[in-house]
Amino acid sequence: MALSKIWVLAEATDGKVTTSTLELLTKARSLADTVEAIYSGGDADAVAGQLGEYGASKVYTTGDLAGALPGVPVSGAIAALVDGGNAPDAIIAATSYYGRDIAGRLSVKLDRTVITNNTDIEVDGSSLVTTEPVFGGTTDVKTTFTAAGPHLVLVRPKSFVAESTGGSAAAVETIAVPDGGKSAGAKVVTRHVEEREGPSLDEAAVVVSGGRGLGEQEKYALIEELAKLLNAAPGASRAIVDAGWVPYSYQVGQTGKVVKPTVYIAAGISGATQHMVGMKGSKNIIAINKDAEAPIFAVSDLGIVGDVHKVLPQLIEALKAR
User: Fold this and answer.
1) Of the candidates 73, 68, 49, which has an alpha carbon nearest to the alpha carbon of residue 59?
2) pLDDT per residue as tens digits for the range 224-237
3) What is the DSSP string of 176-213?
């Protein structure tokens, strides 16, 4: 039995809908008869085609928020829709800064529970059931919503595969934004885009990650060089991020980014549960570690027991000689 209606909190950058949003739309189609999107931005007409292609029949937009932080106005607009009688069975969003901010505020405004960091959603009879990994991903907890909706659910990126329906552009409807009072006074003064070469860590088909086994910060250059040769994205374990070797944006793991590339290379990473939560869904995992008992080998398709300081230079040299 499907739900009647689900709203997906949509995100886009420079007019391109995020992959996480497309994943959620795909999943929502299997759960509800009607799927609609909530979007903040002045380019709703531009993204409506992408949202419609993945199953959204309508896009509710707040319009251009003129530099305001979206949490207050968007949550206020959604709450007003719900209070006005236009309520879905569930509102789902990605576990992103944007999604968490709005879901947290909606939880207060609507007096509804929000379940975060889920990896699956299903319908059991007329009830919505979520699956959330706990204890470092070693145990899955299923939660059934028993109170009235709308249910608030945050989903971990890469939990589903985005699949297009080939549908037409969604209808766009502008919704009113209530006065947020003093809470709406914060403004975005400027934005800084992280400089990088090659594909982003979230979207890369190949990821090369380094860990504490590299020994020192300067050796991370081997990871970056190998990644460049493979047109891959460089990644890192939490240990070297905490040590300040690389920025937090490089971190793969439960408290970093979840990746599902075609090939994941882990160099000098022992395989702590926290890290494996973020990469074990990769199609092919290659591990390089001098410790034959390292946990990373338990999830690897190919394991190389060896010193990364010897293996990586030889691999780099072989790629350059192609």
Assistant:
1) 49
2) 999 999 999 999 99
3) -----GGGG--B-----PPP-SSS-TTT-SEEEEE-GG
Distance between CA atoms of residues 106 and 82, nearest Å: 10
Note whether 213 and 265 are within 8 A (CB).
no
Q: How far apart are CA 29 and CA 274, in angstroms?
A: 31
Q: What angle do CA 273, 212, 313 make, to 5 degrees?
A: 120
Residue 136: CA count within 13 A, CB half-sphere: 6
Task: Kindly report the pTM of this predicted structure.
Answer: 0.86
Tokens 């919505």 appear where?
128
C-alpha to C-alpha distance for 264 and 233, rounded to whole angstroms: 10
Q: Is 170 helix (H, G, I), strand (E, B) or coil?
A: coil
Q: Which residue, 161, 146, 123, is CA-closest to 32? A: 123
The per-residue pLDDT for 274 is 87
